[in-house]
From TrEMBL:
Sequence ranges assigned to domain Helicase ATP-binding in this UniProt record: 31-195
Record organism: Ophiostoma piceae (strain UAMH 11346) (Sap stain fungus)
Stored Pfam families: DEAD, HA2_C, Helicase_C, OB_NTP_bind, WHD_HA2
EC id: 3.6.4.13
The Helicase C-terminal domain, residue ranges: 258-435
Assigned keywords, A-Z: ATP-binding, Helicase, Hydrolase, Nucleotide-binding
Protein name per UniProt: RNA helicase
Amino acid sequence: MADSDIVAAFIPALHKPAALLPIAKHREGLLYLIEKHPVVIVVGQTGSGKTTQIPQFLEQAGWCEDGKVIAITQPRRVAATTVAVRVAEEVGCDVGKEVGYSIRFEDVTSSATRIKFMTDGLLIREALVDPLLSRYSVIMVDEAHERSISTDILLGLLRKIRRRRPELRIIISSATLQAEDFLAYFSAAEEAGSKDTKDIKSTTANSSNTQTRADEEESDDDGSGKPEVGSIISLEGRTYPIDILYLEKPSADYVDTAITTVLEIHEQEPDGDILVFLTGRDEIERAVQGVAERVSAEESLSANRALLPLPMYAGLTADEQMYVFEEAPEDTRKVIFATNIAEASVTINGVVYVVDCGFVKQRAYNPSTGIETLTTTAVSKAAAAQRAGRAGRTKPGKCLRLYTEEAYLSLADANVPEIQRSNLAPFVLQLKALGIDNVLRFPYFTAPPAELMTKALELLYSLGALDDYAKLTKPLGLRMAELAVEPMMAKTLLAAPQFGCLEEMLTIAAMTSREGNSSVWIDNQDGGNRSKEERQLVELVRRKFAADEGDHLTLLNVYQAFVTKGKGEARFCKENRLNFQMLKRAVNVRAQLRRFMERFGLEAGGATNQSRPQDQGTKAEQIRRCLTTGYFAHVARMQPDGTFRNVAGGSVLHAHPSSLMFHRKADWVLFHEVMETGDKTYIRDMTKIEKRWLLEYAPDYYQTTT
């Protein structure tokens, strides 16, 4: 493929990567290192097969004897599920048998499972029940270089657990730039000695002492007198070279440039699917529609072969996400428009061309306002390398970067770790539940900012999860940690029996535990490109479910109609423009949350002996009061111009177009989440509340000013 064949605005990079060798060549050496060292850092290029092949090597080498399981963690749910499907196919079993996966609210494993893929957050939750993770012989933390907050917390736990379980093998899959850092992190635990493990629970005190001594006696020594904890191995994997090309000058609109680039690749380049990285659903849907319109308008673009545009982002259902992995029809080229979920672990066969917009949406939490937003920011060099690595799997590939080479050279080496820009409340709560009371001295891979830690402790204290000494309260704090929802919703669920609305709150919790930015309303997922008549029809349908009090009660109405009138059928959803997959998932999530509550002894009628001073109120009022007990920190007041301001008054907020409150008036509202799009900050899942409830249910958080 000649560079001149591609878009004229692109120029080739100065350096091209060399061809590399497959992972199978390193099998014996890898297994030897894992046998010898407690910790092995695997540096593997995209496409080396580390995610799919290493677990199989380990299982064949006998690491699943005595009923033990090999765990492989992923930062993202879609990666855990798709890789499990791929490995199950290679092993020759159905998913859920010898190979399975577990993600939040979905467990596809059995007693026969020997290789288990899961999110790193789920493995942390397992540690609440089994603090030493004793069922696992090997734990592989994949894509650790992404530095998700769950990955960082998990690394800290594994560093502690390793001292109590010398037989445990830990494999860290890392990008080249951070391999030495990961090894130094685990080596530092040896110097810390038993101080690093004193706050990890052990199932049996006697065995833990024996294991710690055995660890000290059996540690390898490199001759310097210091234990040799681990080793680094580099796996070469990409078979074909990749040409990296850059824009000669910056693009004014990278979405338009991406569309143009895709069409020129389709016209000029040989066979091979195209993967385009954009930042979010709106851009992806705009690009999908833009390509479809251009192809239909220009017959020459589809004269020889069709072009099939497909979206891929977290808000899609599992079935919709799987479309991108299916082979394209004959004489058809796929073009997949994806967010960064396609950067790592997820391999889409047939991709030869990658188009990288150079940006990504990252969550950023502002501790002063308490608002978490999605902000578009430049990718790092590490992320750019991951994206480029998606090409060249079956033949020489090309990566076209929609930015200049000078811009690339100015990028940060790696993304800012999520732990330095996130709401830490859920993770502080989990650490406390694991028996780690001094969360400030936990061995974080990268220490979180003091402001984020302070804000997390303040919120958990206000929710009643922590006492005056910052210790986990019992039973409230412990139960909040066990529930698989974020702390605000956990508090709301646990308060529901006091208000006589547990059944309703279980439904609301399930309906708001959605993936990404997905919506129960189908019309919110078509990019807003509807005619006036179509919008009016959608509005008429929505009014059937609308509750004057706001979105939470509207979601409750939708669910109840789905399971009663609709009998859980897809036809009902199609007639009412509802997301069938999301509602099916909500039924499953609700059932699991209900089992948690039953285990706590908090059933629907379990609060009959508790005083309920609000019994005079309607059911809708009870639900709104209950929501206030958990979401008092997410409150705003409507202004005369129709916008909202948070209590501190420093943030201007707008009702999201998908919200029932978009065209309605209210005084005070609480909201479930906030998102930033362009120059506006939107709040959605909103419900009307009374100001006095804030003082009633959150006296430690709010006070009146004189």
